[in-house]
Amino acid sequence: DTARDTHIDSTSTTRANDLQDMTVHHIKSLPLLLLLLLARHVHGFVISPVRSTPSRWQAADADIANDSDIADMRLGQIQQELRDCNVSYADCFDRESLTKRLLEARESKASATEEPIAAATGPADDDESFQQELDRLRSLRVRELREECAKRQIRWGSFVEKEDLVQAVFAKWKEGANFSVTGMIAPGEVVELNGEQLEQELASSDTPILLDVYATWCGPCQMMAPQLSLVAQEWNDAVRVIKVDSDKHPDVAQKYRVGGLPTLVVLEGGKEQQRVEGALMKDGLLQLMQPYIDAGGDSSD
């Protein structure tokens, strides 16, 4: 009996060991079995489902497919993707222009991932100041943003979302960032400022300023306004043209001893150079500023 029990135990142990070896063998073979099951035969060859890197043509086809999805996007979705790409669309007023801008943004993003990152073209503090201005604009209310648009002569009637207003004002601000410290003045435009902003402009740039102190109820002031816009376009970046409402900002009128309206004050190097009381037409305005424009050109040469 003892010998028989010993034989049975030995046989059981052997079978257990064989079963364990078979289990280990099957487990090790499992990946190969799965691969064979997933493989498919094409013209006598076995095509493995191993993933490979897409070719250049496949990548191009994928780009076309990605671009085609824009047709199914709503305007708000297109604008959101442009914001995510930090791309301004303030000058896009219809679906076609928004679509074109998004395609350009996607192409730029794709090329940026393929090409090495270029060195920065400007100081880092410029990027920081841009972000600060963008954050400031986003903190404003819609009514305040519309007022900012009006000051910069931006048509905001077609804007749907608050971010549309933000991007429009920010685009104008960037245009004037290298022309004026406040970023409120763009070359070739007449801009209304307050006293604090005027002082900032006086302390920072060598470009001469033509200051127009006016009032909304003043007939000659309103008559001169379109003439001032014409010469501002002609002067472009040679002169900063600023308007200040004497009723809203009496401190400015008092500082410059304004006795009649309109009063034109020529400012250069932070100091008053000349003044004229009464409205001037285009020729008179050009004649008033020409010596200062010529002096600026001579100094730059």
Automatic annotation (TrEMBL):
Key words, A-Z: Disulfide bond, Electron transport, Transport
Top-level taxon in the UniProt lineage: Eukaryota
Organism name: Craspedostauros australis
GO molecular function: protein-disulfide reductase activity
PROSITE patterns listed in its UniProt record: THIOREDOXIN_1, THIOREDOXIN_2
Residues spanning the signal sequence: none
Region feature Disordered, mapped onto this chain: 107-129
Listed InterPro entries: Thioredoxin-like_sf (IPR036249), Thioredoxin_CS (IPR017937), Thioredoxin_domain (IPR013766)
Name of the featured protein: Thioredoxin domain-containing protein
